[in-house]
């Protein structure tokens, strides 16, 4: 049994308009997931530096970032990043290039947990346009199907899909099961399920929800979502 989480951390700028990375980290520690997919984890301009620095993670958490090696000071790819526990082993990782009009991407890693379980994890932040979201979903699905090695797969991220069942949700649902996480946006008054967790058919989602704590309501405009999964 593993616990995963997805969080659009909004570069650690909270609903109080203050950038406080330590508050983001506190929310992640509250959830206590084994693997976390982050969106908007890097600053948008300049060197696109990671908001959660290596020092902050190593000294104040049980997490380490998956090293995608895209930019020297970035944690991920187009703001997408993955965190795993320090006792996990990253077997392989890569950035997935997506068709887009604006900078968009996804990240993928094969992770061996301390228990010995190996899972493939994909983190994503899809487009605001429904047409481009469907193209991006198709690109991710095709990339996974073409992979030489196949592992039980978990997909997480901010899909930016406001509809309940159509669009890219229908595309993903043909291959993956959705966790019933609940509404995560806006953090102060959740009205939409923009953030999603999906799992391949050989996995069983046993529980899921939205992490709605006092810190989470102010740390970002999204609430983090989580799921427990039986491998």
UniProtKB/TrEMBL annotation:
Residues 5-222 form the Endonuclease/exonuclease/phosphatase domain. InterPro entries: Endo/exonu/phosph_ase_sf, Endo/exonuclease/phosphatase, GPI-anchor_lipid_remodeler. GO terms for molecular function: endonuclease activity; exonuclease activity. Transmembrane segments: none annotated. One of its GO terms (biological process) is GPI anchor biosynthetic process. GO terms for cellular component: membrane. Keywords: Endonuclease, Exonuclease, Hydrolase, Nuclease. This is Endonuclease/exonuclease/phosphatase family metal-dependent hydrolase. It comes from Sphingomonas kyeonggiensis.
